[in-house]
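User: I'll paste a sequence; please echo it back and then give the predicted structure.

Assistant: Echoing your sequence first, then the prediction.
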Amino acid sequence: MFSHVFHILAQKGSTVITVGTDDPILDVATTLAQHNIGGAPVLSPDGQLAGLVSEKGIVRALSQHGGDISTLTAQDIMTRDIPTAAPDDSIYDIACRMTWSRNRHVPVMEDGKLVGLVSIGDIVKLRAENAEQEAQELQDYVTGRDHAAVRPPGDISPVQCEKKES
């Protein structure tokens, strides 16, 4: 199955947890923990996508700044050059972008606005569901379940056999 970003957004919805550029790192970490997410887009004061903050970025900042991390904001640790996606982009393309950029999250943009966020977990979930569905369809095909069988010409059904013998 050839899937697109909009398939993921249709399942998970388009609600995106975001943080602001001036949000303190401790608040950002609290937001990620409360929502059980690994990253969030960072929005500038005018609502534009400025970057992405992730658990990885917080750990990196902690290793560099130690206890002084509490003085940092989202814009101090966010990744600025992040790949983005459009709703019509293929899941395969997004997975390649994630792998190449080593980002686990890709903001979805449409007409310059943030409309969703795709994570590597979303892609894995969709791929697993597609594989499960395909396996079930192949099994149904092989076993004849849920598929119309066409009887070869001249083949006699059991009912017809009973009638001929009587």
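The domain at 5-125 is CATH 3.10.580.10 (CBS-domain). The radius of gyration is 25 Å.
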